[in-house]
Amino acid sequence: MMTDGLDGVVAASTILSDVDGAAGRLVIRGRSLDELAGRTSVEEATALLFDGFFDDRPSGGEWRAHLGQARHAVFAEVAALDERLIRHGPLEAVRALVARLADGEDLATALRLVAAPAVFLPSYLRLRAGHAPVAPDASLGHAADVMRMLRGQPASSVEAAALETYLVTVCDHGLNASTFAARVVASTQAGLTSAVLAGLGALKGPLHGGAPGPVLTMLNDIGEAGDARAWLEAALARGERLMGFGHRIYRVRDPRADALKRALATLGVEAGRLAQAEQVEAAALAVLKDHKPGRRLETNVEFYTAVLLDALGFPADSLTCVFAMGRSVGWLAHAREQATSGRLIRPQSRYVGPAS
Ligand code: ACO
C-alpha cells in the first residue's frame, strides 16, 4: 500500500497520546487536554510523559529542581551565540546551540534538551535586541523562568501561567511530522540530542510549527477585521494556504485552539486584538468553506498560538521556538519509547524512474 504523505498509515504504537480527529479530542497518557491545560505545570507534564522511560525517577517535587539545574547547565552554551547565528534567525540559532549538546539516552540528557530551547530562545532574543542574556534561576518554575529570562525581570504570575498553559497544551500530539522525524532518528539508536534536532528541523516548516509567525503577519496585514474577507479571498486566489487552518487529522476544530483562547482570556489581552482575531477566524472559516466545500478546514492550534505568544511579547519570528520549548518533552518521550521498544523505521519506496 502506498499513501501520499503516509495519510492514514499507522506507523507506531504509543502509550503517550491519542488524537481523535473526528471528535476533536486529545488525550495525553490517559488525561484529556482539558484536565491538563491550565491545571498542570511544565514539570508535571514532563513527569507524566517521561514516566517509565528512564531509570532514575525524581519524586514529584524534585522535577522542578532537576529542570532548573538543567536550565542552569545549558546556559553555558549561550556564549557560542555569535553575530552570524544571530543574523540567521531564532530557529537556526537554537538548533545550532542544541547541536552542541552531547547525545545520550539518560534523564539528565533529556532534561537538558527540555531546558535548551527555554534558555536559548530568550538569550538569543535579548542578544539580538542589544541586551545581555539573563541567566536562569533554577529555583523558579520553568515557565516563570522563561518569562523572566525573556523580559529581564519577573513577569506577572498570570503571564507565566498563560505561557505554562501554552507549553502544556502543545507538549505532545500523536505522530505529528516532527515527532515522527524524532522517532525515525531514535529508531537508529542515535541518541536523544539527534532525535530532538530532527524534531526541530521538521517543526520549522510553515505547514507544521512554522505557521504561527505567518498567522501574525496575516492578522497584522488585515488590520481592520472588516477587510478580512477580501484579504483572505485574495490570498486563496494567489494559491496560498490560510495559515492556522486545516489539519491532517482533525476534521473538527482543534481542541487546543480553545485551550489557548481560555489562556488569552486570563491575560486580559487588549479587547480589540482578541475581537479582531475572532472576526478574522470567522471570515477565514466562511471563505474556506466555499474554497473547499468537500473538505472541513477548521481552526488549528497555530491561530491562537500566534495571538497568545504575541501578547506575551515573543516576536513573530520566534514563535516556532516557543513551540519547540513545549514539544521537546513529547519528542523526548517518543524517542525513548521508540529506542526502547520499537524497531528500526525503514519503509520502502516504489521506483517510478526509468528502467536501466
Ligand atoms: N488554506 C487553504 N487551503 C487549504 C488549507 C488552508 N489552510 N489547508 C488545506 N487546504 C486545501 C489543500 O490545498 C488541499 O487542496 P487540493 O485538494 O486542491 O490540493 C485540500 O485543502 C486538502 O488539504 P490537504 O492538502 O489534504 O491537507 P493536508 O492534510 O495535507 O495538510 C496542513 C494539512 C498542512 C496543516 C494544511 O491544512 C495547511 O497547509 N494548513 C496551513 C498551515 C498550517 O496552519 N499549519 C499548521 C498545522 S497544525 C500543526 O502542525 C501544529
TrEMBL record:
Q: Which InterPro entries match?
A: Citrate_synth-like_lrg_a-sub, Citrate_synth-like_sm_a-sub, Citrate_synthase, Citrate_synthase_AS, Citrate_synthase_sf
Q: What is its EC number?
A: 2.3.3.16
Q: Does the keyword Transferase apply?
A: yes
Q: Name one GO cellular component term.
A: cytosol
| Enzyme superclass (EC) | transferase
| Pathway involvement of the protein, from the record | Carbohydrate metabolism; tricarboxylic acid cycle; isocitrate from oxaloacetate: step 1/2
- Residues spanning the membrane: none
| Similarity section | Belongs to the citrate synthase family.
Name listed for the protein in its UniProt record: citrate synthase (unknown stereospecificity)
